[in-house]
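Deliverable D5.2: sample structural annotation.
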Amino acid sequence: MNKIIFGKLDYIIKRDNLYLSADISREELARMVKMNNTRFARMIKENTDTNLNGYLNNLRLNYAMHLLKEHPEYTLRAIAEASGINSMPTFHQLFKARTGMTPSEFKNAEKELER
């Protein structure tokens, strides 16, 4: 049952780009699927192997990488904020942990690939 509920929630989060809001709360999402916080947290963990922040940050980083590829003229701050990450240190830390490079290094690597 949790898998079905998560599938619907995942669809809504992606369809409506809810992950791009830095203000999205666990309570708000749990209310959408009519679960208490504990059960909601368990459902996220079972279906993503991480917690809610990890799940949302993964979606945000995917979007940030898309923006870095499609809009190299955007500043890193604009990309971070558009992706729902308001802190530049957090953006750098998450990005480096995920890709092994900083957002700047990723952006430069993309430029090199286009040549």
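Annotation notes: The CA atoms of residues 49 and 102 lie 24 Å apart. The mean pLDDT is 94.
The annotation will be released with the project's public dataset once the embargo ends.
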